[in-house]
Each structure stands twice: as structure tokens, then as C-alpha cells.
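Dissemination and training. As part of the outreach component of the grant, students in the summer workshop were shown how a complex can be specified as a set of sequence lines and then modelled as a single object. The example used during the hands-on session is reproduced here so that future cohorts can follow it. Participants entered these lines:
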Amino acid sequence: AQSVTQLDSQVPVFEEAPVELRCNYSSSVSVYLFWYVQYPNQGLQLLLKYLSGSTLVKGINGFEAEFNKSQTSFHLRKPSVHISDTAEYFCAVSVSNFGNEKLTFGTGTRLTIIP
Amino acid sequence: NAGVTQTPKFRVLKTGQSMTLLCAQDMNHEYMYWYRQDPGMGLRLIHYSVGEGTTAKGEVPDGYNVSRLKKQNFLLGLESAAPSQTSVYFCASSYWVASNYGYTFGSGTRLTVV
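and obtained this result:
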């Protein structure tokens, strides 16, 4: 079975500074990888996903992530954060068995932007 | 608008009461899922369905039952609610179309058991 580890439960960052949210996964087979954002009292919004192809994936709101198969990582980055990026971020993985597999989530990273 | 609709959005139950959460999707997706979200634990899979008439257990199925009598609906039932079931519940469906794969989530149901 696959699993996801988000080592940082909270990350405080000054406004306009860069940020990296770490995600490592464990799986014995090929995977699909996702990052979701959840703003306070809201549902989940897809930031980006890796299915195949280029290992650098660009998403919404200026975020990007890089799939590193050898290190089993899918870290999320943004070069300059804004107050509006304050939210909880979830990394998730599913096995790439022709799709339609259950999604396994990490425990989340709460990103706080300091003015 | 197409998507996943969850009802109700909020509910307060007394311990021992029962209730059903409804998830409806109009995208003709085969696979549907129920997750619960608790602080510091991310989202955990309760039950899922790979098609009409089928259901399977996820990571945390105890205390819940589900049914998928119609392809578009996935019901989550609590027979005897407990305070430990206080949580935010999310329904989702997944799709695989022309090498594009993803999930559509509902907006959530906030359940409090007192």
C-alpha cells in the first residue's frame, strides 16, 4: 500500500519569501501525485498533479512541484508567497493502475504567511 | 453546475442517533469515495465504490456503512453516532478520460456529535 509523509506540520514564511513544502511517498509501483490546497473553512482545491511526462509540474497561483523518483519526493515550491497563500496544503498519491484508484493523503502542512 | 454535491452541509447529532450523508455526482464517474478529515490527520478514506452496487472498506470503516444503489449517488450512514465521529466529511469521485486523471471533491459536511 502507498503512503505519504509531510514532515512539516507548520511552516511560517515571510511575505514575498520563497517556500518549499516537502512531500515524500512510499509505493512499490508507479504513482500519480497531487497537491491540494484548503483555505479556512473551505473544501479542497487542486493545485497541480503529476501523471507522467515532465517531472516539473506547474500549477495554479504560481506554485510548482518536482517529481523525483529516486528520492520518492514531490516537493511543492513557490518563489514568492503572498498573504493569500495562507492555507493548509495536502500532498496525495494514488497508484497508476489505469486510474481510478483511491487517493492517499498526507497529514497536511499549514502554511502561515507573516506580513 | 456539474460536480459533486454533498448534503447536508452541517449537522449536529446526539450520541446514539443515526443519520445519512448524501453524495451526488452528475459526471457519470464510476468511482466514488468518502473521506473524513480530522485536525493533524489529513483525509482518511472511510469507504469507496468502484461502480453501482459495489462498495469496499477504506482505512477507517468502523461505525459507518455505505450504499451505491444508483451510479450517481453514494450514501454514508452512521447507525449510532459517537463523539469520535465528529469530523468534516468529504465525498469525491474520480475520472480517467483521455490520459487525464483526477478527482472531484464535494464541499464537505461538518458533523458534530454531542
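The two ends of chain A are 41 Å apart (CA to CA). Students were then asked to discuss how this feature might be tested experimentally.
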